[in-house]
Protein backbone atom coordinates (compact mmCIF):
# COMPACT_ATOMS: atom_id res chain seq x y z
CA UNK A 1 0.00 0.00 0.00
CA UNK A 2 1.56 3.32 -1.03
CA UNK A 3 1.12 6.75 0.52
CA UNK A 4 -1.02 7.84 -2.43
CA UNK A 5 -3.37 4.84 -2.33
CA UNK A 6 -5.74 4.79 0.62
CA UNK A 7 -6.69 1.39 1.94
CA UNK A 8 -10.14 0.05 1.23
CA UNK A 9 -12.44 -1.98 3.45
CA UNK A 10 -15.95 -3.09 2.50
CA UNK A 11 -17.38 -2.03 5.84
CA UNK A 12 -15.81 1.47 5.82
CA UNK A 13 -17.07 4.39 3.80
CA UNK A 14 -14.50 5.47 1.17
CA UNK A 15 -14.39 8.96 2.67
CA UNK A 16 -13.51 7.53 6.09
CA UNK A 17 -10.83 5.27 4.60
CA UNK A 18 -9.23 8.24 2.82
CA UNK A 19 -9.33 10.38 5.95
CA UNK A 20 -7.75 7.65 8.11
CA UNK A 21 -5.06 7.05 5.49
CA UNK A 22 -4.25 10.76 5.32
CA UNK A 23 -4.12 10.91 9.11
CA UNK A 24 -2.03 7.82 9.87
CA UNK A 25 -0.18 6.96 6.68
CA UNK A 26 0.55 3.36 5.70
CA UNK A 27 2.64 2.65 8.83
CA UNK A 28 -0.34 3.45 11.02
CA UNK A 29 -2.83 1.11 9.36
CA UNK A 30 -2.94 -2.69 9.07
CA UNK A 31 -5.37 -4.35 6.69
CA UNK A 32 -3.69 -7.50 5.34
CA UNK A 33 -5.32 -10.63 6.75
CA UNK A 34 -2.07 -11.98 8.17
CA UNK A 35 -1.24 -8.68 9.89
CA UNK A 36 -4.74 -8.24 11.31
CA UNK A 37 -5.25 -11.80 12.57
CA UNK A 38 -3.38 -11.44 15.92
CA UNK A 39 -5.65 -8.52 16.83
CA UNK A 40 -8.91 -10.40 16.26
CA UNK A 41 -8.33 -13.39 18.55
CA UNK A 42 -8.09 -13.24 22.32
CA UNK A 43 -5.25 -14.76 24.37
CA UNK A 44 -7.34 -17.77 25.39
CA UNK A 45 -8.59 -18.36 21.83
CA UNK A 46 -12.18 -18.24 23.04
CA UNK A 47 -13.22 -15.50 20.63
CA UNK A 48 -12.50 -15.02 16.95
CA UNK A 49 -13.66 -11.74 15.48
CA UNK A 50 -13.14 -9.62 12.41
CA UNK A 51 -12.26 -5.98 11.91
CA UNK A 52 -12.15 -3.51 9.06
CA UNK A 53 -8.61 -2.40 9.97
CA UNK A 54 -6.15 -2.05 12.79
CA UNK A 55 -5.35 1.60 13.43
CA UNK A 56 -2.09 2.53 15.18
CA UNK A 57 -1.99 6.16 16.34
CA UNK A 58 1.38 7.64 17.29
CA UNK A 59 0.09 10.28 19.70
CA UNK A 60 -2.99 11.62 21.45
CA UNK A 61 -3.84 13.99 18.59
CA UNK A 62 -4.03 11.11 16.12
CA UNK A 63 -6.03 9.03 18.59
CA UNK A 64 -8.53 11.85 19.08
CA UNK A 65 -8.86 12.30 15.33
CA UNK A 66 -9.51 8.56 14.87
CA UNK A 67 -12.28 8.61 17.47
CA UNK A 68 -13.83 11.74 15.97
CA UNK A 69 -13.78 10.31 12.44
CA UNK A 70 -15.16 6.95 13.46
CA UNK A 71 -17.85 8.66 15.50
CA UNK A 72 -18.97 10.70 12.50
CA UNK A 73 -19.39 7.46 10.52
CA UNK A 74 -20.80 5.41 13.47
CA UNK A 75 -17.93 2.92 13.19
CA UNK A 76 -17.35 0.86 16.37
CA UNK A 77 -13.93 1.14 18.03
CA UNK A 78 -12.26 -1.65 19.96
CA UNK A 79 -9.29 -0.34 21.98
CA UNK A 80 -6.51 -2.87 22.39
CA UNK A 81 -3.25 -2.86 24.31
CA UNK A 82 -1.30 -6.07 24.78
CA UNK A 83 -4.37 -8.22 23.99
CA UNK A 84 -3.98 -10.17 27.24
CA UNK A 85 -7.63 -10.02 28.34
CA UNK A 86 -8.91 -13.21 29.93
CA UNK A 87 -12.55 -12.36 29.19
CA UNK A 88 -12.47 -11.29 25.54
CA UNK A 89 -12.48 -7.63 26.51
CA UNK A 90 -10.32 -6.44 23.59
CA UNK A 91 -11.64 -8.68 20.79
CA UNK A 92 -13.96 -7.32 18.06
CA UNK A 93 -17.15 -9.11 17.12
CA UNK A 94 -17.62 -11.15 13.95
CA UNK A 95 -19.36 -8.43 11.93
CA UNK A 96 -16.14 -6.89 10.61
CA UNK A 97 -17.57 -3.38 11.09
CA UNK A 98 -15.28 -2.33 13.91
CA UNK A 99 -11.76 -0.96 13.79
CA UNK A 100 -9.23 -2.08 16.36
CA UNK A 101 -7.23 0.80 17.81
CA UNK A 102 -3.84 -0.49 18.92
CA UNK A 103 -1.88 1.84 21.18
CA UNK A 104 1.54 0.16 20.95
CA UNK A 105 3.12 3.12 19.13
CA UNK A 106 2.23 5.43 22.03
CA UNK A 107 5.01 4.01 24.17
CA UNK A 108 6.96 6.85 25.72
CA UNK A 109 7.82 7.15 29.40
CA UNK A 110 7.56 10.91 29.64
CA UNK A 111 8.75 11.65 33.16
CA UNK A 112 9.68 10.14 36.51
CA UNK A 113 9.55 12.46 39.52
CA UNK A 114 11.50 11.21 42.56
CA UNK A 115 9.96 13.82 44.86
CA UNK A 116 6.33 13.21 43.95
CA UNK A 117 7.09 9.49 43.50
CA UNK A 118 5.18 9.50 40.21
CA UNK A 119 5.75 8.51 36.61
CA UNK A 120 4.00 9.78 33.48
CA UNK A 121 3.62 7.05 30.86
CA UNK A 122 1.76 6.67 27.61
CA UNK A 123 -0.85 3.97 27.23
CA UNK A 124 1.22 1.71 24.97
CA UNK A 125 4.09 1.25 27.41
CA UNK A 126 4.20 -2.32 28.68
CA UNK A 127 3.88 -2.81 32.40
CA UNK A 128 7.29 -4.50 32.46
CA UNK A 129 8.92 -1.53 30.71
CA UNK A 130 7.34 0.83 33.23
CA UNK A 131 8.54 -1.35 36.12
CA UNK A 132 12.08 -1.40 34.70
CA UNK A 133 12.14 2.37 34.23
CA UNK A 134 10.98 2.93 37.80
CA UNK A 135 13.63 0.50 39.08
CA UNK A 136 16.40 2.23 37.14
CA UNK A 137 15.33 5.49 38.79
CA UNK A 138 15.58 3.89 42.25
CA UNK A 139 11.85 3.45 42.71
CA UNK A 140 9.25 0.73 42.30
CA UNK A 141 5.99 0.49 40.38
CA UNK A 142 4.24 -1.99 42.68
CA UNK A 143 1.67 -3.29 40.20
CA UNK A 144 2.65 -6.83 39.12
CA UNK A 145 0.67 -9.31 37.00
CA UNK A 146 1.60 -12.48 35.14
CA UNK A 147 1.20 -10.86 31.70
CA UNK A 148 3.27 -7.77 32.53
CA UNK A 149 5.68 -8.42 29.67
CA UNK A 150 2.84 -7.94 27.15
CA UNK A 151 0.11 -6.05 28.99
CA UNK A 152 0.15 -2.32 28.30
CA UNK A 153 -0.48 0.44 30.81
CA UNK A 154 -3.63 1.68 29.09
CA UNK A 155 -5.26 -1.73 29.28
CA UNK A 156 -4.00 -2.32 32.80
CA UNK A 157 -5.73 0.84 34.03
CA UNK A 158 -8.80 0.41 31.82
CA UNK A 159 -9.43 -3.00 33.40
CA UNK A 160 -8.32 -1.97 36.91
CA UNK A 161 -5.88 -4.88 37.02
CA UNK A 162 -5.01 -6.30 40.42
CA UNK A 163 -2.14 -8.74 40.65
CA UNK A 164 0.28 -10.04 43.18
CA UNK A 165 0.88 -6.93 45.29
CA UNK A 166 -2.72 -5.84 45.81
CA UNK A 167 -2.58 -7.01 49.42
CA UNK A 168 -0.18 -4.15 50.14
CA UNK A 169 -0.63 -1.49 47.47
CA UNK A 170 -4.13 -1.99 46.08
CA UNK A 171 -5.40 -2.45 42.52
CA UNK A 172 -4.42 -0.32 39.54
CA UNK A 173 -7.07 2.24 40.47
CA UNK A 174 -5.32 2.90 43.79
CA UNK A 175 -2.07 3.65 41.93
CA UNK A 176 -3.68 6.04 39.44
CA UNK A 177 -2.88 9.69 40.18
CA UNK A 178 -4.06 11.26 36.93
CA UNK A 179 -4.89 10.44 33.33
CA UNK A 180 -5.53 11.75 29.86
CA UNK A 181 -8.21 10.09 27.75
CA UNK A 182 -10.02 10.53 24.46
CA UNK A 183 -13.75 10.55 25.02
CA UNK A 184 -16.31 9.03 22.60
CA UNK A 185 -16.94 12.39 20.88
CA UNK A 186 -13.23 12.85 20.18
CA UNK A 187 -12.62 15.41 22.91
CA UNK A 188 -9.48 14.98 25.00
CA UNK A 189 -10.05 14.86 28.75
CA UNK A 190 -6.87 16.21 30.31
CA UNK A 191 -6.67 15.01 33.88
CA UNK A 192 -2.87 14.78 34.08
CA UNK A 193 -2.69 16.35 37.51
CA UNK A 194 -0.35 14.87 40.10
CA UNK A 195 -2.17 16.39 43.05
CA UNK A 196 -2.74 14.54 46.29
CA UNK A 197 -5.72 16.79 47.01
CA UNK A 198 -8.01 17.99 44.23
CA UNK A 199 -11.61 17.91 45.38
CA UNK A 200 -13.29 19.54 42.38
CA UNK A 201 -16.34 17.52 41.48
CA UNK A 202 -16.59 13.97 40.16
CA UNK A 203 -13.39 11.91 40.08
CA UNK A 204 -13.61 11.12 36.36
CA UNK A 205 -10.30 9.29 36.33
CA UNK A 206 -11.77 6.72 38.69
CA UNK A 207 -14.77 6.32 36.42
CA UNK A 208 -12.54 5.61 33.42
CA UNK A 209 -10.36 3.20 35.39
CA UNK A 210 -12.07 -0.16 35.16
CA UNK A 211 -14.45 0.92 32.37
CA UNK A 212 -12.88 -1.59 29.94
CA UNK A 213 -12.70 0.91 27.09
CA UNK A 214 -16.45 1.47 27.01
CA UNK A 215 -16.32 5.15 28.07
CA UNK A 216 -13.12 6.38 26.43
CA UNK A 217 -9.58 5.43 25.46
CA UNK A 218 -6.77 6.15 27.89
CA UNK A 219 -3.80 7.82 26.22
CA UNK A 220 -1.47 8.82 29.09
CA UNK A 221 -1.51 8.19 32.84
CA UNK A 222 0.29 9.28 35.97
CA UNK A 223 1.10 6.39 38.28
CA UNK A 224 2.06 6.35 41.95
CA UNK A 225 5.50 4.87 42.67
CA UNK A 226 7.03 3.59 45.89
CA UNK A 227 10.58 3.58 47.25
CA UNK A 228 12.51 0.59 45.99
CA UNK A 229 12.63 -2.12 48.71
CA UNK A 230 16.12 -2.54 50.14
CA UNK A 231 15.39 -5.89 51.76
CA UNK A 232 13.18 -8.67 50.45
CA UNK A 233 12.52 -12.22 51.57
CA UNK A 234 10.58 -14.93 49.74
CA UNK A 235 9.49 -18.34 50.98
CA UNK A 236 7.56 -21.26 49.54
CA UNK A 237 5.53 -23.14 52.12
CA UNK A 238 3.77 -26.49 51.95
CA UNK A 239 0.43 -26.55 53.78
CA UNK A 240 -2.36 -29.06 54.29
CA UNK A 241 -5.17 -26.89 52.92
CA UNK A 242 -6.47 -23.37 52.42
CA UNK A 243 -7.43 -23.11 56.09
CA UNK A 244 -3.78 -23.57 57.06
CA UNK A 245 -2.79 -21.02 54.41
CA UNK A 246 -5.22 -18.52 55.95
CA UNK A 247 -3.82 -19.21 59.41
CA UNK A 248 -0.31 -18.52 58.10
CA UNK A 249 -1.48 -15.25 56.57
CA UNK A 250 -2.95 -14.26 59.92
CA UNK A 251 0.33 -15.06 61.67
CA UNK A 252 2.31 -12.77 59.36
CA UNK A 253 -0.30 -10.03 59.56
CA UNK A 254 -0.30 -10.16 63.34
CA UNK A 255 3.45 -9.50 63.40
CA UNK A 256 3.76 -6.80 60.71
CA UNK A 257 0.97 -6.33 58.14
CA UNK A 258 2.94 -3.61 56.33
CA UNK A 259 5.73 -6.08 55.53
CA UNK A 260 3.53 -8.41 53.46
CA UNK A 261 4.09 -7.63 49.78
CA UNK A 262 2.47 -10.76 48.34
CA UNK A 263 0.69 -13.80 49.71
CA UNK A 264 -0.21 -16.34 47.03
CA UNK A 265 -2.08 -19.64 47.30
CA UNK A 266 -1.55 -22.61 44.97
CA UNK A 267 -3.21 -26.01 44.94
CA UNK A 268 -1.26 -29.23 44.77
CA UNK A 269 -2.97 -30.07 41.48
CA UNK A 270 -1.93 -26.78 39.92
CA UNK A 271 1.63 -27.07 41.18
CA UNK A 272 1.91 -30.58 39.71
CA UNK A 273 0.87 -29.19 36.31
CA UNK A 274 3.60 -26.56 36.52
CA UNK A 275 6.36 -28.99 37.45
CA UNK A 276 5.17 -31.56 34.88
CA UNK A 277 4.59 -29.24 31.93
CA UNK A 278 6.95 -26.27 32.34
CA UNK A 279 10.55 -26.97 31.46
CA UNK A 280 12.94 -26.16 34.29
CA UNK A 281 10.23 -25.73 36.93
CA UNK A 282 11.07 -27.91 39.93
CA UNK A 283 9.64 -28.16 43.42
CA UNK A 284 12.34 -27.26 45.99
CA UNK A 285 10.69 -29.22 48.81
CA UNK A 286 11.19 -32.78 50.00
CA UNK A 287 7.83 -34.00 48.69
CA UNK A 288 4.62 -32.69 47.09
CA UNK A 289 1.92 -31.23 49.32
CA UNK A 290 -1.86 -30.71 49.11
CA UNK A 291 -1.37 -26.93 48.81
CA UNK A 292 1.28 -24.23 48.85
CA UNK A 293 1.79 -20.62 49.82
CA UNK A 294 4.29 -18.19 48.33
CA UNK A 295 4.92 -15.31 50.69
CA UNK A 296 7.02 -12.23 49.97
CA UNK A 297 8.02 -9.71 52.62
CA UNK A 298 9.69 -6.42 51.75
CA UNK A 299 10.93 -3.28 53.44
CA UNK A 300 12.58 0.00 52.48
CA UNK A 301 15.01 -0.61 55.36
CA UNK A 302 18.32 -2.32 54.66
CA UNK A 303 18.57 -4.20 57.95
CA UNK A 304 17.72 -7.87 58.52
CA UNK A 305 14.37 -7.24 60.24
CA UNK A 306 12.42 -8.79 57.39
CA UNK A 307 14.45 -11.98 57.40
CA UNK A 308 14.10 -12.26 61.16
CA UNK A 309 10.34 -11.84 60.82
CA UNK A 310 10.13 -14.49 58.10
CA UNK A 311 12.19 -17.00 60.09
CA UNK A 312 10.25 -16.33 63.29
CA UNK A 313 6.78 -16.76 61.79
CA UNK A 314 7.76 -19.81 59.75
CA UNK A 315 9.51 -21.38 62.73
CA UNK A 316 6.38 -21.09 64.85
CA UNK A 317 4.19 -22.33 61.99
CA UNK A 318 6.40 -25.39 61.42
CA UNK A 319 6.35 -26.19 65.13
CA UNK A 320 2.55 -25.89 65.33
CA UNK A 321 1.99 -27.91 62.16
CA UNK A 322 0.40 -25.02 60.26
CA UNK A 323 3.24 -25.35 57.75
CA UNK A 324 4.43 -28.81 56.70
CA UNK A 325 7.67 -27.72 55.04
CA UNK A 326 9.21 -24.50 53.81
CA UNK A 327 12.15 -23.10 51.88
CA UNK A 328 13.47 -19.54 51.83
CA UNK A 329 15.19 -18.04 48.81
CA UNK A 330 18.89 -17.35 49.37
CA UNK A 331 19.57 -15.45 46.15
CA UNK A 332 17.86 -13.48 43.40
CA UNK A 333 17.92 -16.52 41.14
CA UNK A 334 16.22 -18.62 43.80
CA UNK A 335 13.64 -15.88 44.34
CA UNK A 336 12.91 -15.85 40.62
CA UNK A 337 12.62 -19.64 40.59
CA UNK A 338 10.08 -19.61 43.42
CA UNK A 339 8.02 -16.89 41.75
CA UNK A 340 8.15 -18.80 38.49
CA UNK A 341 6.29 -21.68 40.13
CA UNK A 342 3.44 -19.25 40.76
CA UNK A 343 3.56 -17.28 37.52
CA UNK A 344 3.53 -20.33 35.24
CA UNK A 345 0.19 -21.62 36.52
CA UNK A 346 -1.84 -20.10 33.67
CA UNK A 347 0.50 -21.41 30.98
CA UNK A 348 0.73 -24.87 32.56
CA UNK A 349 -3.06 -25.12 32.68
CA UNK A 350 -3.29 -24.10 29.05
CA UNK A 351 -0.88 -26.91 28.13
CA UNK A 352 -2.81 -29.39 30.27
CA UNK A 353 -5.97 -28.96 28.18
CA UNK A 354 -9.07 -26.83 27.92
CA UNK A 355 -9.81 -24.85 31.05
CA UNK A 356 -12.60 -22.77 32.51
CA UNK A 357 -11.34 -19.81 34.51
CA UNK A 358 -13.22 -18.29 37.41
CA UNK A 359 -11.70 -15.00 38.52
CA UNK A 360 -13.66 -14.58 41.74
CA UNK A 361 -13.28 -12.88 45.10
CA UNK A 362 -14.71 -13.40 48.54
CA UNK A 363 -13.90 -11.90 51.95
CA UNK A 364 -10.45 -13.15 52.94
CA UNK A 365 -11.85 -15.12 55.86
CA UNK A 366 -14.07 -17.12 53.47
CA UNK A 367 -11.41 -18.23 51.00
CA UNK A 368 -11.11 -21.73 52.55
CA UNK A 369 -14.89 -22.21 52.36
CA UNK A 370 -14.85 -21.13 48.71
CA UNK A 371 -12.14 -23.60 47.76
CA UNK A 372 -13.65 -26.49 49.70
CA UNK A 373 -17.25 -26.01 48.57
CA UNK A 374 -16.49 -25.20 44.94
CA UNK A 375 -14.17 -28.20 44.66
CA UNK A 376 -16.92 -30.53 45.83
CA UNK A 377 -19.47 -28.93 43.49
CA UNK A 378 -17.26 -29.12 40.38
CA UNK A 379 -16.12 -32.69 41.00
CA UNK A 380 -19.77 -33.71 41.32
CA UNK A 381 -20.66 -31.83 38.15
CA UNK A 382 -17.94 -33.38 35.97
CA UNK A 383 -16.22 -36.46 37.41
CA UNK A 384 -12.49 -36.39 36.79
CA UNK A 385 -12.34 -32.62 36.42
CA UNK A 386 -9.00 -31.21 37.58
CA UNK A 387 -9.53 -28.47 40.15
CA UNK A 388 -6.56 -26.09 40.14
CA UNK A 389 -7.28 -22.93 42.14
CA UNK A 390 -4.54 -20.40 42.75
CA UNK A 391 -4.18 -16.71 43.38
CA UNK A 392 -4.13 -13.84 45.78
CA UNK A 393 -5.30 -15.21 49.11
CA UNK A 394 -4.15 -12.03 50.85
CA UNK A 395 -6.87 -9.97 49.14
CA UNK A 396 -9.50 -12.70 48.71
CA UNK A 397 -9.08 -13.12 44.93
CA UNK A 398 -8.82 -16.75 43.85
CA UNK A 399 -8.59 -17.92 40.25
CA UNK A 400 -10.76 -20.98 40.68
CA UNK A 401 -9.71 -22.70 37.47
CA UNK A 402 -10.96 -26.04 36.20
CA UNK A 403 -9.06 -28.15 33.68
CA UNK A 404 -10.77 -30.78 31.56
CA UNK A 405 -10.58 -34.41 32.70
CA UNK A 406 -7.75 -36.25 31.01
CA UNK A 407 -8.99 -37.75 27.75
CA UNK A 408 -12.14 -35.62 27.56
CA UNK A 409 -12.92 -33.79 24.33
CA UNK A 410 -11.88 -30.15 24.97
CA UNK A 411 -14.71 -28.79 22.83
CA UNK A 412 -17.25 -30.77 24.85
CA UNK A 413 -15.69 -29.48 28.06
CA UNK A 414 -15.76 -25.84 26.99
CA UNK A 415 -19.36 -26.23 25.86
CA UNK A 416 -20.21 -26.52 29.55
CA UNK A 417 -18.32 -23.37 30.55
CA UNK A 418 -21.41 -21.43 31.67
CA UNK A 419 -22.65 -24.40 33.65
CA UNK A 420 -19.28 -24.69 35.39
CA UNK A 421 -18.95 -20.95 36.03
CA UNK A 422 -22.49 -20.75 37.37
CA UNK A 423 -21.81 -23.64 39.73
CA UNK A 424 -18.78 -21.86 41.18
CA UNK A 425 -20.45 -18.46 41.23
CA UNK A 426 -23.46 -19.75 43.15
CA UNK A 427 -21.06 -20.51 46.00
CA UNK A 428 -19.23 -17.20 45.53
CA UNK A 429 -22.52 -15.34 45.82
CA UNK A 430 -23.51 -17.25 48.94
CA UNK A 431 -20.17 -16.14 50.43
CA UNK A 432 -20.84 -12.46 49.57
CA UNK A 433 -18.23 -12.40 46.81
CA UNK A 434 -17.90 -11.16 43.24
CA UNK A 435 -17.92 -13.06 39.94
CA UNK A 436 -15.13 -10.83 38.61
CA UNK A 437 -12.28 -9.83 40.88
CA UNK A 438 -9.64 -8.41 38.55
CA UNK A 439 -10.14 -9.68 34.98
CA UNK A 440 -13.25 -7.62 34.31
CA UNK A 441 -16.50 -8.54 32.57
CA UNK A 442 -15.44 -8.30 28.93
CA UNK A 443 -17.80 -10.28 26.70
CA UNK A 444 -17.42 -13.56 28.57
CA UNK A 445 -19.40 -12.56 31.64
CA UNK A 446 -21.94 -10.06 30.36
CA UNK A 447 -24.76 -12.54 30.95
CA UNK A 448 -24.02 -12.45 34.69
CA UNK A 449 -24.51 -8.70 35.04
CA UNK A 450 -28.33 -8.57 35.40
CA UNK A 451 -28.39 -11.08 38.25
CA UNK A 452 -25.34 -9.74 40.06
CA UNK A 453 -25.50 -6.02 39.34
CA UNK A 454 -29.10 -5.56 38.24
CA UNK A 455 -31.56 -2.92 39.37
CA UNK A 456 -30.28 0.54 40.21
CA UNK A 457 -26.58 -0.40 39.85
CA UNK A 458 -26.74 -1.71 36.28
CA UNK A 459 -29.25 0.95 35.25
CA UNK A 460 -26.90 3.68 36.50
CA UNK A 461 -24.07 2.15 34.51
CA UNK A 462 -26.25 2.13 31.39
CA UNK A 463 -27.17 5.78 31.88
CA UNK A 464 -23.52 6.76 32.20
CA UNK A 465 -22.68 4.80 29.06
CA UNK A 466 -25.57 6.39 27.16
CA UNK A 467 -24.63 9.89 28.31
CA UNK A 468 -20.97 9.61 27.28
CA UNK A 469 -21.33 7.29 24.28
CA UNK A 470 -24.84 7.69 22.85
CA UNK A 471 -23.86 5.98 19.56
CA UNK A 472 -22.37 3.01 21.42
CA UNK A 473 -19.15 3.04 19.39
CA UNK A 474 -16.74 2.47 22.27
CA UNK A 475 -15.97 -1.24 22.69
CA UNK A 476 -19.55 -2.40 22.12
CA UNK A 477 -20.60 -5.78 23.44
CA UNK A 478 -18.45 -5.52 26.56
CA UNK A 479 -19.71 -5.28 30.17
CA UNK A 480 -23.38 -4.78 29.23
CA UNK A 481 -25.67 -7.67 28.31
CA UNK A 482 -27.61 -7.24 25.10
CA UNK A 483 -31.05 -5.77 25.64
CA UNK A 484 -34.14 -7.11 23.87
CA UNK A 485 -35.02 -4.99 20.85
UniProtKB/TrEMBL annotation:
Q: Which cofactor does it need?
A: FAD
Keywords recorded for this protein, A-Z? FAD, Flavoprotein
The cross-references to Pfam families, in alphabetical order and at most eight, read: FAD-oxidase_C (PF02913), FAD_binding_4 (PF01565)
Is Phosphoprotein tagged as a keyword?
Answer: no
Biological processes per GO annotation:
respiratory electron transport chain
Give a yes or no for keyword Flavoprotein in this entry: yes
A GO term for molecular function: FAD binding
Outline the extent of the FAD-binding PCMH-type domain.
47-228
Q: What's this protein's family per the entry? A: Belongs to the FAD-binding oxidoreductase/transferase type 4 family.
> By what name is this protein known?
FAD-binding oxidoreductase
Origin species: Ameyamaea chiangmaiensis
UniProt lineage: Bacteria, Pseudomonadati, Pseudomonadota, Alphaproteobacteria, Acetobacterales
Amino acid sequence: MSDSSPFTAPSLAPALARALHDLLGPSGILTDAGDVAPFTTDWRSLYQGQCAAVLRPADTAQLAAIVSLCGQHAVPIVPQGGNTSMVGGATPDASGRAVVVCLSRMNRIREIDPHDLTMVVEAGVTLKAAQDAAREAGMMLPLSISSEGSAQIGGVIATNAGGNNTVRYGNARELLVGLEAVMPDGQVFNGLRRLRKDNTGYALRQLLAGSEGTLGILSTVILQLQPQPRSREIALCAVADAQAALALFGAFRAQDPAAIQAFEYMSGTGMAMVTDLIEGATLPLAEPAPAYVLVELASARADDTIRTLMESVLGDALESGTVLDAVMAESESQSAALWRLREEHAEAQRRAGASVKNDVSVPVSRVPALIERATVACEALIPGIRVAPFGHLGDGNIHFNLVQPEGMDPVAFLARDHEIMDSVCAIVRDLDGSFSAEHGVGQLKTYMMPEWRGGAELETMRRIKQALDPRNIMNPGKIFPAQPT
